[in-house]
Design brief:
Chain B: Oligomeric complex that consists of at least the alpha, beta, beta', gamma, delta, epsilon and zeta subunits. Chain B: Belongs to the adaptor complexes small subunit family. The complex is a heterodimer of chains A (892) and B (212). Chain A is 56% helix and 14% strand. Chain A has 892 residues and is of the alpha+beta class. In chain A, strands 1, 2, 3, 4, 6 and 8 form a six-stranded antiparallel sheet that branches. In chain A, strands 12, 13, 14, 15, 16 and 17 form a six-stranded antiparallel sheet that branches. In chain A, strands 5, 7, 9, 10 and 11 form a five-stranded antiparallel sheet that branches. In chain A, a hairpin with a 6-residue loop joins strand 9 (737-750) and strand 10 (757-767). In chain A, helix 8 runs antiparallel to helix 9. Chain B has 212 residues and is of the alpha+beta class. Chain B has eight helices and seven strands. Chain B has helices spanning 2-15, 22-38, 66-81, 120-137, 144-149, 151-161, 172-179, 195-211, and strands spanning 42-49, 54-59, 91-95, 98-105, 108-114, 162-163, 166-167. Chain B is globular. The chains are: A alpha+beta (892), B alpha+beta (212). Chains A and B meet through helix 3, helix 5, helix 7, helix 9 and helix 12 of A and helix 1, helix 2, strand 2, helix 3 and strand 3 of B.
Chain lengths: 892, 212
């Protein structure tokens, strides 16, 4: 190895090091040998100190001692108390702390340390206290408590601090002892020495933290007095916030207690106190702009400080404020912009993301220009943060998608690691899904990207998307070139997925089929098995005359699987090779995880970002499931004449979880029909259910007539099956109704060990919860990219305005949430979030009503001092009668 | 816009007298604060060389159990910071979810780490205290060779700055004199040099570096 030039160079380096380092070639066993000198009759203090330093160096480098070695070293070290040498004594203290002897060994040094605790030298006393408290246990503490109590009020700050800090540590293990020092600690808080005051305050707070009244007294006493230490002042600010949050604002005046104190801290001379106070104010719950302004002003001054630490602290805090109150931070935008070129990239990234949050629509273009220059010289991890901020900006201002999409595609072309590229591609994919207008330009950007993409994972992902989305665009042929280039130039994995994508174009677009066939034929000579196999398979499917079996195969290959992949994977793992073929229909179609995210969404209201994310994923999933439902329903002949499926609701559970039979219902709405799909799961291993049917009775409403049922033939344990019931209703009408339903079935006993069912069985039924068809079932969530334009383009004649009282509500957020849930419409421009202290708010909703009629709603709510909520609802629609229906929904 | 808001909002806060979420929120708050104070303010102090190798470290929290986790953290912060010019002023970053303040001199890299919600300026004060105390003790000849030759002083310095995560002292002069046990006994070698002498040496050193 040494013969290789690089290794040789390394050796040289080590040689250089050895000249510097007194520890070069140090070995544990040798040092342990040297430690024997601790036992010498005539101690060489200098040498002993050197040996301890070596031992500590070894520990510092991560070396560990065995139990025996540690014990030996410890016993030897205790001998060194004989020496009077000060330097050595300090090292002995350090060594004892590092070794942390076991409780039966502690006793050996106790007397020596106690002697030092009573020494005339203050530094001895301070260090002895710290060491003793570190290694001591409860029993011994009783003996030394008297000394510690005295030490707390010692006139020398170093002794006093040592006792107080030790007290903070001891409070965890022996609270009853430390609590007896209360009076002494209180005296220490009044000390003239800054650090003693700091440690005293910390300990006093710890002792009293469960006593609200005492804490409040402590804060009010100190906030009026003078606290000398900036560190203590910072602590006081934290404690004050604690008291404030517990008391809440004064109900008469609306003022917060102690707010004046926080504000006065903004004028303190120490930066750390100013910052602590400013940050505390921004983090108060329900902070008002009046309260925020002075804090924002001092943070703004920090932004132009010469110290990176101050700039970072300020921009980080402002960034957090911008998440909830972007307007309050907008004043700092000019200072923020100058930080984009900050040397410290953390600061620059925080500045950018803050600007992206506070910026308004008109500023986006200018901002993007600045970011473009900035992106080239930051690390990937910062770039990812910026890409994510841009994605959320784009979702906030959908009409700006053009410049934002351009930006994303530009940075996609530049150098970058996998994680970074993946973040960009994911962002583009999300934008394509969320903003319909952005689809074509997004696809062509992605096409360009795969022309020169080194990441197989991303290439295949994009090719798959192209195969699905490309054929549906206005000009599918332009994508073929990009896809076929992959077949020529890439590795086998990418070639295979390119072949699949090509075949999808051929299957969907009739006109392109001959050209696709030619291309596929060329792939027959590929080097790779998988590519050839795929090409052969697709060729035979696309070129032959269609017959029934082929149609099935086509449907299977070219359409999305209607079962979730993880369920399929699980079923395939369970499948044992036998005579019985694997049945795709037996794969459960329920996706458990998605249910969880949907349930989670409302509870995590506090974490807005998290909520948005889960909502996105739920919505993204929804569009896929809709297609799956559509296919499922089309496969059932009796529903074929119902026309085009308008909307499928999310599954509604009709049984408690963990019951014998788990049932949920999905409501499918057709123009003149409603089909109820009951997903039933049998959880009893001893039962086999057959001929499962759902009996329905109309409780409320008269428009519905049952026209068909499709029972589930057999329902073994653990497999989800579907039973259907179809109702007829007046064409295009928004008929509401409530049903009671009962599960009827034939039970056969099953021997769980063999899986054989008995011949005989009996009939049984199982009561389900009532289900309702609500107005929301007739309204489809359909966002518009520019609400204002869409609103203007609808006839003002169709506008219906009315005012409602919503009674007493906890908050506006509550009211908005309630109304949007009833209407089931898409929230536009993220207006569903009400600023925490707003008195009025306008929420924009968009949707499509049954019959594909666009409906837009402007929902204005206001709250008064009695928490009475009033609502003004303005509806515009392509069909005035639909506007009326929306009002009827709210009325009922 | 802002002006109007100022006018409107006080009234808002009045109407929000009995907020529903308040009790829940305040519980979270008090827990969070007592947590922050009872547990360490400083997570670790790290001193690395120009290749990112450990020179001296002191960990005060269990966030990095085991040697490998500690070394991985040191490697991570080194690779993320060593190209930055943190020589005249201390630099800062949020690295691996921690506030890390750092300053470099010759072939040495000083780091102090605090929790994510820590006051950045306090962490920076600790770093400055450590850095200045070491400079004082080594009479401004701060490099790896000198640090290793006076390793005992560096360890004592760390011991005097933070105790179990709680900041003990941040004033470099006080730290340095405590490390030197000044005032403990009259014939301690290092106490021969008072602070003013140390400063004089520093000035002289600085002047020489200017003349070069």
């Amino acid at each position: 190895m040494a013969s290789l030039p690089p290794a040789l160079k390394k050796d040289d380096d080590i040689d250089d090091d050895s000249e510097y380092s007194p520890f070069y070639g140090i070995e544990k066993s040798a040092v342990l040998q040297e430690a024997r000198c601790f036992n010498d009759r005539e101690l060489d203090a200098r040498r002993c100190a050197q040996v301890i330093t070596k031992l500590l160096y070894l520990i510092n480098q991560g070396e560990t001692f065995t139990k025996n070695e540690a014990t030996d070293v410890f016993f030897a070290t205790t001998k060194l108390f004989q020496s009077k040498d000060i330097g050595l004594r300090r090292m002995v203290y350090l060594m004892i702390k590092e070794i942390s002897p076991s409780s039966d060994e502690v006793i050996i040094v106790t007397s020596s340390l106690m002697k030092d605790m009573n020494s005339k030298t203050d530094l001895y006393r301070a260090n002895a206290i710290r060491v003793l408290c570190r290694i001591t246990d409860g029993g011994l503490l009783g003996q030394i408590e008297r000394y510690l109590k005295q030490a707390v009020v010692d006139k020398n700050p170093v002794v006093s601090s040592a006792a107080l800090v030790s007290g903070i540590h001891l409070l965890q293990s022996n609270p009853e002892i430390v609590k007896r020092w209360s009076n002494e600690v209180q005296e220490a808080v009044q000390s003239k020495a800054p650090l003693v005051q700091f440690h005293g305050l910390a300990l006093l707070h710890q002792i009293r933290q469960n006593d609200r009244l005492a804490l409040s007294k402590l804060v009010s006493g100190l906030s009026r007095g003078t606290v000398r230490s900036p560190l203590a002042q910072c602590l006081l600010i934290r404690y004050t916030c604690q008291v404030i949050s517990e008391l809440g604002p004064n109900s008469q005046t609306g003022d917060r207690p102690f707010f004046d104190f926080l504000e006065s801290c903004l004028r303190h001379k120490a930066d750390m106190v100013i910052f602590e106070a400013a940050r505390a104010i921004t983090e108060m719950s329900g902070v008002t702009s009046r309260e925020l302004t002075p804090a924002i002003t001092v943070l703004q001054l920090f932004l132009s400080s010469s110290k990176p630490v101050l700039r970072f602290a300020a921009v980080r805090t402002l960034n957090k404020v911008a998440q909830t109150q972007p307007l309050a931070v907008a004043n700092c935008n000019i200072d923020m912009e100058s930080l984009i070129s900050d040397q410290n990239r953390s600061i620059a990234t925080l500045a950018i993301t803050t600007l992206l949050k506070t910026g308004n629509e008109s500023g986006v273009d200018r901002l993007m220009k600045q970011i473009t220059n900035f992106m080239s010289d930051i690390a990937d991890e910062y770039k990812i943060v910026v890409v994510e901020a841009i994605r959320s900006l784009c979702l906030k201002f959908p009409q700006k998608y053009r410049s934002l999409m351009n930006f994303l595609s530009n940075i996609l072309r530049e150098e970058g690691g996998f994680e970074y590229k993946k973040a960009i591609v994911d962002s583009i994919l999300i934008l394509i899904r969320e903003i319909p207008d952005a689809k074509e330009s997004g696809l062509s950007h992605l096409c360009e990207f795969i022309e020169d993409c080194e990441f197989t994972y991303l290439s295949t992902q994009i090719l798959h998307l192209l195969g699905n989305e490309g054929p549906k665009t206005s000009d599918p042929s332009k994508y073929i070139r990009y896809v076929y280039n992959r077949v020529i130039l890439e590795n086998a994995t990418v070639r295979a997925s390119a072949v699949s994508a090509l075949a999808k174009f051929g299957a969907v677009v009739e006109g392109l089929r001959p050209r696709i066939l030619i291309l596929l034929r060329r792939c027959l000579y590929d080097n790779d098995d998988e590519v050839r196999d795929r090409a052969t398979l697709y060729l035979s499917l696309l070129s032959d005359e269609p017959d029934a079996a082929q149609d099935d195969a086509k449907a299977f290959l070219f359409q999305d699987l209607d079962v979730p992949l993880e369920n399929l994977e699980k079923s395939l793992e369970l499948y044992e090779p036998s005579e019985r073929p694997f049945d795709l229909a037996a794969v459960p179609k329920d996706t458990k995880p998605r249910h969880q995210t949907e349930k989670k969404a409302p509870t995590s209201k506090e974490k807005k970002a998290a909520k948005d994310a889960s909502k996105k994923s739920a919505e993204g999933g929804a569009s896929n499931t809709f297609e799956a439902y559509e296919k499922l329903l089309n496969s059932i002949p009796m529903f074929a004449g119902f026309g085009k499926l308008f909307k499928s609701s999310a599954p509604v559970a009709l049984t408690e979880e963990e019951t014998e039979y788990a049932v949920n219902v999905v409501k499918h709405v057709y123009p003149g029909h409603v089909v109820l799909q009951f997903n039933c799961t049998n959880t009893i291993a001893e039962h086999l259910l057959e001929n499962v049917n759902v009996a329905m009775d109309l409780i409320e409403g008269e428009d519905f007539n049952q026209v068909a049922t499709n029972p589930l033939a057999s329902m073994p344990c653990g497999v989800t099956g579907q039973a259907f019931v179809a109702f007829e209703k007046p064409e295009g009408a928004c008929s509401l109704g409530k049903f009671s339903s009962t599960l009827r079935f034939y039970v056969k006993e099953v021997d769980p060990s063999t899986g054989d069912a008995d011949e005989d069985g009996y009939e049984d039924e199982y009561q389900l919860e009532d289900l309702e068809i609500t107005a929301a079932d007739y309204i489809l969530k359909a966002g518009v990219s520019n609400f204002r334009n869409a609103w203007e383009s609808l006839d003002s004649e169709s506008e219906r305005v009315d005012e409602y009282s919503l009674g007493t509500r906890e908050s506006l957020q509550d009211a908005v949430q309630a109304v949007t849930t009833i209407l089931g419409m898409q929230v536009c421009e993220a207006t569903d979030v009400v600023p925490s202290n707003a008195r009025s708010h306008t929420c924009l909703l968009a949707g499509r009503f049954l019959g594909d009629t666009q409906v837009l709603v402007r929902l204005s709510v206001g709250i008064d001092s009695q928490k009475q909520v009033a609502m003004k609802l303005a509806v515009r629609s392509e069909d005035p009668s639909v506007s009326d229906i929306i009002h009827e929904i709210i009325n009922s | 816009m802002t002006c109007r808001q100022i006018g409107v909002n006080p009234a808002c806060s009045r109407t929000k007298g009995a907020r529903s979420g308040i009790s829940l929120r305040s519980v979270g708050f008090s827990w969070c604060f007592s947590f922050e104070v009872s547990i360490s303010l400083v997570k670790n102090v790290i001193l690395l060389d120009s290749e990112g190798k450990r020179v001296a470290v002191k960990y005060f929290s269990d966030d990095w159990p085991g040697l490998s986790a500690k070394l991985a953290f040191e490697k991570s912060i080194f690779t993320k910071t060593h190209r930055t010019g943190a020589r005249s002023e201390a630099e800062i970053g949020l690295l691996d979810g921690y506030i890390v303040v750092y300053k470099f001199i010759s072939d040495l890299h000083f780091y102090v780490t605090g929790g994510e919600d820590e006051n950045e300026i306090i962490v920076a004060t600790v770093l400055q205290g450590f850095f200045d105390a070491v400079s004082l003790l080594l009479r401004n000849n701060v490099d790896k060779k000198n640090i290793l030759e006076n390793f005992d002083l560096v360890l004592l310095c760390l011991d005097e700055i933070v105790d179990g995560g709680i900041i003990l002292e941040t004033d470099a002069n006080v730290i340095a004199s405590r490390v030197a046990m000044r005032g403990a006994n009259d014939d301690v070698p290092l106490s021969e040099q008072t602070i003013s002498q140390a400063l004089a040496t520093a000035k002289e050193h600085f002047a020489r570096s200017l003349l070069k």
